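Annual report, structural modelling task.

Input specification for the iron/sulfur cluster complex:
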Amino acid sequence: MTNFFKNLKNNKFLFIINLVYFALGFVNIHFSLLGLICMMLPLILLVKTNRKTYCQGYCPRANLYTKAGKLTSKYSMKTPAYFIKGNMKHIMLAYFGISLFFITMSTLRVASGAMNPLEQLRFMIYFRIPFKLPQMFELQGMAGWLTHLAYRFYSMMMTTSFLGLAMAFVYKPRTWCTICPISTISEIYLDGRKRVKDEAA
Ligand code: SF4
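The model returned the following structure:
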């Protein structure tokens, strides 16, 4: 198992995990719930190792942006300063928080029967994607709230991946990482730990 993780670190094919994730959404949307692992793993590793272990070699998304960004690296522009030092990371963190809030509340409403599952993709929570995601097979008997949650999760992953890719093409390949909510949460956590340590010393 240790060797497996060693081989995975900075593996040049990590981006395939990302592509497989989105492809699986076409097989059946419920696979999108695997994205929960993507969201939890960086935080679990952060708490376990007290550093951004996931960001430093295991993130398929960062690997995808690095690959994609190389295609336009000759024309890439300087990353805007407000991405690195300004409020952009807090705006993105707020977007992430609001998305999770809407996902949770709407899923609870579907589970309680107050609304029907929304079986459609949306970009940035609001904009409906004008076609239905093709499904290779349907799962019978799935709870409506689970299907709703799966579509909402896929929508969030699709939105953030699209934004990150657009940034990789326009700016430096890993520009998304400067404003990635997971990175911002990790920094807040590590700063907090350092402050507690300093106060105790
Ligand atoms: S900052 Fe976000 S996208 Fe970048 S490596 Fe970390 S988790 Fe991945």
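The longest strand covers residues 122-123.
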